[in-house]
Design a protein that fits this description.
With 255 residues, the chain is mainly alpha-helical. Helices cover 59% and strands 7% of the residues. It has one domain. It has a 3-stranded antiparallel sheet. Helix 5 packs antiparallel against helix 6. The chain starts with a helix and ends in a 10-residue tail after the last helix.
């Protein structure tokens, strides 16, 4: 048995009892500009609540999946709920990232004040989210360090978000997440099975004939919980990761 085989036989997941019920929410709230938006904060709380429920369900499946009569109903429920959670996690992080990118672009072009004034103009009625967006822009204008923290947090979360996006595109569009107009067809999109060590639904990330890796819903949640500790990757790390997620096409055998 090789060292790799021994590693594969070892559980890599924390016990559910070790996961704090607010860990995921607190991790998201630590992102630059996130906590200042009550709607993002509300959705982070909802995502965390569902994650807690799924953790408990996954733990139950893990404990009984090899019984003579495995909990087929609970496994089916996990198979249905896990993609919904993945969609929600993706959209929440995508929205936060887009807001950060917008602020950074405006800051680089000295356009924050103009955009804030546009949002603050009188519409004849109160639009609370426009007012909130304008205030957030004013905050960024007065605190350049906030813009820099957004840049850093975007980099620190890029690998995890790219992985999440890869799974989401396969589940929702039955395509491989790649740049360009022509998207390869995903292999068995949505097909998953419970992971033996944690019970979480496990998805295969593949690109053409290349299997990149397997990722569980728990992996995604743990990546989010790890955000406060995530380091700033180097440019080389990011380039290498993108190459890893986009392996060369496998040519069919000749003849």
């Amino acid at each position: 048995m090789t060292d790799a085989d021994e590693f594969d036989d070892q559980p890599r997941y924390r016990d559910v009892a070790e996961i704090g019920t607010s860990e995921l929410h607190e991790a998201l709230m630590s992102l630059a500009g996130f906590a200042a938006n009550p709607y993002l904060a509300m959705q982070a709380s909802q995502l965390c609540l569902v994650d807690n429920s799924l953790n408990a369900l996954e733990h139950e499946v893990m404990r009984h999946q090899f019984d003579d009569e495995p909990p087929r109903g609970k496994i089916a429920l996990l198979g249905a709920l896990s993609p919904m959670w993945i969609y929600a996690a993706y959209e929440l992080l995508r929205t936060w990232r887009q807001r950060c990118e917008d602020v950074i672009k405006l800051a680089e072009n000295s356009g924050i004040g103009l955009k804030a004034a546009h949002l603050e103009r009188d519409l004849g009625y109160r639009h609370y989210d426009r007012e909130l967006r304008a205030q957030q822009l004013r905050d960024a204008q007065e605190r350049p360090e906030l813009v820099e923290q957004m840049r850093l947090d975007l980099r620190r979360t890029e690998m995890g978000f790219t992985t999440l996006e890869f799974i989401r595109v396969a589940l929702a569009k039955h395509e491989v997440s790649k740049k360009g107009n022509k998207k390869p067809i995903a292999f068995a999109p949505g097909l998953a099975r419970p992971n033996r060590w944690c019970g979480s639904m496990e998805y295969e990330l593949s690109n053409g004939g290349a299997i990149i890796r397997n990722v569980t819903r728990r992996d995604i949640a743990e990546t989010i919980r790890f955000i406060p500790e995530a380091e700033n990757p180097s440019d080389a790390d990011l380039v290498g990761f993108q190459a890893y997620m986009n392996p060369p096409d496998v040519e069919p055998p000749a003849g």
